[in-house]
Each structure stands twice: as C-alpha cells, then as structure tokens.
Write a structure and sequence with these properties.
By secondary structure, this protein is an all-alpha fold. It has helices at residues 2-20, 41-71, 75-102, 110-126, 129-153, 159-181, 189-208. The termini are far apart. Bound molecules: fe (ii) ion (2 copies). Residues 61, 88, 140, 171-172, 175 line the site of one fe (ii) ion.
C-alpha cells in the first residue's frame, strides 16, 4: 500500500515537473561541430517545428519511463527505467534550449501527449517486464530512426540543433541496447506497426501545434 501511494505521488510529481518546471540537464548542451550560421526566418520556423516535435518526443519519454517504472515488477528493471528517465531529462532540457534559441514554442498539447504516453506506459508495464522492456527497445529504435531523418531535414546552418539531435540519437540507441540486455522481448509486428502509426500522428500534429 505504501509503495502504491509513493508510486502515485512520484508519478504526479514527475508529471508536474515535466510539464511545468524548467528541466535541469546533468550534461552540458552538446556543442556544434561547425560554427552555426545565421538562419533566415523560414529556416528558423522549420528548425523550430522539428525541434518542437523532438521536444514532444522527450515529454512522451518522461511519461513512458515514469509509468513503466511505476508498475515494473523487478526492482532492478524499475531502477533501470528510472535511470533512463533521468538521462531523458537532459534531452528534454536540450530540446527546450533549442526551442528558446530558435524563438519557437513548445507544443500546446504537451499535457495531452504526456497523459497519452503515460497511459500507454502503464499498459506496456502491466504486460510484464519483458514486454515492457521490449516496448522500450522498439520505441528507442523508432526514435533513433526518426532523429536520423531529422539530421537530414534540419537547415544546413543549424549546427546547434544538429549537435543536440546527434547526441540524442546516440543515447536512444544505447537505451535500446540496455533494454535488450535487460531481457526485452521482441514485440509482435502488429504492435510495432501500431507504434509507428502513433509516432506518425504525434510527429505530424506536433509539427504544427
Ligand atoms: Fe530521448
Ligand atoms: Fe531514450
């Protein structure tokens, strides 16, 4: 009982912090490898929209990891999920920093994205630790592919955003590898296809709103 009350309080605390507090990165903002160039207004808008999508992805990552940790059965799995969530906080802070620098705003639908992802995380978590880890591995694989696409779409002069996306891509690949080595089960093809579809809806909407 105490654990479930603690878990609910932790989850509520994490939701409020993710949505309304300024995230604190434990690692510095990844530095650009080449000098950033001045972006024209259209390039800024385009880069801002892409980074808003990535920021929403990180809001969802917080929600998923928090929910999955809350219902994980094995304490070691729970600790791994919380450790990954902490690293995702860097991503949240970095994407927020890029939004600020580009003069773009975060998605207006963030509370909705958070709630949806949290519900999904609870379902995945309830299906058992192996499936839950399989969900992490597949999510991270899809996110990594998505970020790779953004590296080609970001304006050529936006070396600062590209540096952030590059480091995030490396981290997501590591999160997937960690989930596999912690005992992830491969999800069925239909589940992976549904996740791709959900990801496409999210990225399309967050690009605008
Ligand atoms: Fe991330
Ligand atoms: Fe990740």
């Amino acid at each position: 009982m105490t654990r479930s009350i603690d878990t609910v309080l932790d989850a509520a605390d994490s939701a409020l912090r993710t949505l309304f507090a300024r995230p604190h990165a434990t690692r510095p903002l990844p530095p650009p490898t080449e000098p950033p160039e001045e972006l024209n207004p259209a390039e800024r808008r385009h880069a801002g929209a892409l980074m808003r999508v990535n920021h929403v992805g990180e809001i969802c990552a917080q929600a998923l990891y928090t929910a999955q940790a809350a219902v994980a059965r094995d304490p070691a799995v729970r600790a791994d999920l919380l450790a990954a969530a902490a690293e995702e906080t860097d991503h949240l802070a970095w994407t927020q920093a890029r939004l600020d620098a580009l003069g773009a705003r975060a998605s207006l639908l963030n509370p909705l994205w958070y709630a949806g992802a949290f519900a999904l995380g609870l379902v995945a978590g309830r299906l058992g630790d192996a499936i839950s880890l399989g969900f992490v591995a597949e999510t991270e694989r899809q996110v990594e592919a998505h970020l790779d696409g953004h590296l080609g779409r970001l304006p050529a002069g936006d070396a600062a955003s590209r540096a952030v996306v590059t480091q995030m891509k490396l981290d997501e690949a590591r999160h997937a590898a960690q989930a596999w080595s912690a005992g992830a089960a491969q999800l069925p093809a239909w589940a992976r296809a549904m996740m791709r579809l959900a990801g496409r809806v999210m990225t399309t909407v967050a690009h605008r709103i």
